[in-house]
């Protein structure tokens, strides 16, 4: 509830005075809001609803002291001014009294970032959670499950490889099989999300990947070929997650809040790593491989029950959203319901260098990300440092702990990156400059950290370097990830799908390649050096050709 008390010594705004008692200079309010107050001393001004508020008075403020109350993003949420007014007060003497009063009007759009207070009173008294906060919370949850279900295999791969006698090369193929389906569905999922909305596409994907998670241990017992098929189905379903997330956040958040929304969603994604790395070994030790896959698979169906009734594809379809919040979200946007009516022009999207800048950035990001995701537990179990005689040789539970810590820090740093990006833009930095700064941090930092790994002589030092690499790589979320929405807002989901498919192809190559490097050379170091080189080269290209100006209309 937006409640503004009058300053000490002033007489509060009274309710609609009658003509006999009001002066010619009493203010008239032109806005889509209702205002009420009590006429006795000490009453408060209560704003019921409205947006785009502007105060008008038949008599201008004599001292000229008035100001606009604005969001940090520049949206006017009200105005404040001080005026001197003459009014007849009651009493036999009919005495005349002059007074000054402060007039303050605010609307429910007055949010300071995503965490700002909602001042919407249309339905009931008290605090009302903005609908877009519910959306980002549910998106963060499903992204958490998306990644947690992936990581179950990264932890279970160690006992599975021991049970079935897989070599490092076969292990790499099993790890990469998830990416085979992921490669295809990213593009299709992006086009479907743009056209039919991210809610439906995300729901279908979550249902299928949860089922595939259940079936994974059964498939492994049946045959390696069946396991590869189920993992490919799992990847096919998960490929729609990021394009659907991109489409939903673009429709539900204004530009000055979008980086923070992405940061929150990606924090959920990275927390999925932490949860799965910590919980999976416990379940594995007590219930076996089947127990861990069954547990995480069931969580997906539990989440679906909230997703089905909690949000809508577009804020205009929500029965619970306030007009003020809808106005804030829709300001400056075109009709997103019509944006997906045509199939996106693929050749046109790939004809511009800014598209290639975000595409190659996704390639480099996925190359490094999936190497670390797929091989980190194995790395801490077997990696040689400096020479083949110095081995960390930690057990699986310790490896999971060492693997979980970097992802937890990454979740926090990803949110910091998003909030910092929004802050810099609000402070006057160009969007292009901010995107390049964030992306440079997201690539140069991890590259340097990976190069330093060869000097690590203990598991703790290696874990610290891994943590630095992953935490800094999360700054890419405020770089190329958001840059896709900048250059092609109309086709954000589809372009994200294209770049994600290219990144997935790179992830397949890097995941399988890492397995062969380990088998041939007995060390991860050479491959980590190659990964650092990929980071550095892509940073140069991105800074040369990336832009935040809209390229595709």
TrEMBL record:
Region (Disordered): 1-41
Biased amino acid composition, Low complexity: 12-37
Compartments, record wording: Membrane
Record's GO cellular component terms: membrane; plastid
Keywords: Membrane, Transmembrane, Transmembrane helix
Gene Ontology molecular functions: phosphate transmembrane transporter activity
Composition bias, Pro residues: 1-10
Its membrane topology: Multi-pass membrane protein
TM spans (from-to): 170-193, 226-250, 262-284, 290-311, 400-425, 462-482, 494-518, 524-545
Main location: membrane
Domain Major facilitator superfamily (MFS) profile span(s) in chain numbering: 135-549
UniProt record similarity statement: Belongs to the major facilitator superfamily. Sodium/anion cotransporter (TC 2.A.1.14) family.
Function: Probable anion transporter.
Protein name in the entry: Putative anion transporter 2, chloroplastic
Naturally occurring in which organism (per UniProt): Cocos nucifera (Coconut palm)
């Amino acid at each position: 509830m937006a409640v503004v008390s009058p300053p000490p010594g002033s007489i509060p705004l009274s309710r609609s005075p009658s003509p006999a008692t009001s002066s010619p200079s009493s203010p008239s309010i032109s806005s889509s809001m209702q205002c009420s107050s009590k006429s006795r001393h000490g009453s408060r001004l209560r704003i019921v609803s409205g947006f785009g508020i502007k105060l008008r008075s038949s008599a201008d403020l004599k001292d000229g002291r008035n100001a606009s109350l604005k969001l940090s993003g520049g949206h006017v949420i009200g105005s404040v001014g001080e005026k001197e007014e003459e009014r007849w007060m009651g009493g036999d003497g009919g005495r005349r009294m002059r007074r000054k009063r402060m007039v303050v009007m605010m609307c429910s759009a007055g949010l300071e970032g995503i965490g700002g207070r909602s001042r919407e009173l249309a339905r009931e008294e008290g605090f009302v959670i903005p609908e877009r906060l519910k959306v980002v919370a549910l998106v963060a949850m499903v992204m958490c499950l998306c990644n947690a279900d992936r990581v179950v295999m990264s932890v279970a791969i160690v006992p599975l490889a021991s049970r079935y006698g897989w070599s490092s090369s076969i292990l790499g193929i099993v790890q990469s099989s998830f990416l085979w389906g992921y490669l295809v569905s990213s593009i299709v999922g992006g086009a479907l999300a743009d056209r039919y909305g991210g809610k439906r596409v995300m729901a279908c994907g979550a249902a299928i990947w949860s089922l595939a998670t259940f079936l994974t241990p059964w498939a492994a017992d049946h045959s390696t070929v069946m396991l590869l098929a189920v993992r490919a189905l799992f990847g096919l379903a998960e490929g729609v997650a990021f394009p659907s997330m991109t489409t939903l956040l673009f429709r539900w958040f204004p530009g000055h809040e979008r980086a923070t929304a992405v940061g929150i969603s990606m924090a959920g994604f990275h927390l999925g790593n932490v949860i799965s790395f910590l919980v999976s070994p416990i379940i594995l030790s007590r219930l076996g491989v089947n127990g861990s896959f069954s547990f995480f698979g069931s969580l997906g169906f539990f989440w679906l029950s909230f997703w089905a009734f909690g949000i809508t594809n577009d804020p205009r379809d929500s029965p619970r959203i306030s007009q003020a919040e809808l106005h804030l979200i829709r300001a400056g946007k075109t009709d997103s319901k019509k944006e997906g009516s045509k199939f996106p022009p693929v050749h046109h999207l790939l004809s511009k260098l800014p598209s290639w800048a975000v595409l190659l950035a996704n390639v480099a990001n996925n190359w490094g990300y999936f190497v670390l995701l797929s091989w980190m537990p194995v790395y801490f179990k077997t990696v040689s440092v400096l020479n083949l005689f110095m081995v960390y040789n930690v057990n699986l539970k310790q490896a999971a702990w060492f693997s979980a810590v970097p992802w937890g820090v990454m979740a926090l740093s990803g949110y910091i990156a998003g909030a910092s990006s929004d802050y810099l833009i609000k402070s006057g930095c160009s969007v292009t400059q901010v995107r390049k700064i964030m992306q440079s941090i997201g690539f140069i930092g991890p590259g340097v950290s990976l190069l330093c790994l060869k000097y690590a002589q203990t598991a703790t030092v290696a874990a610290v370097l891994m943590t630095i690499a992953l935490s800094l790589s999360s700054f890419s979320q405020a770089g190329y990830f958001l840059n896709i929405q900048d250059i092609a807002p109309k086709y954000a989901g589809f372009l994200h799908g294209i770049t994600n498919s290219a990144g997935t192809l790179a992830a397949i190559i890097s995941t399988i390649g890492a397995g062969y490097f380990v088998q041939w050379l007995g060390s991860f170091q050479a491959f980590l050096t190659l990964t650092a080189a990929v980071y550095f080269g892509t940073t140069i290209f991105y800074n040369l050709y990336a832009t935040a100006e809209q390229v595709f209309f």
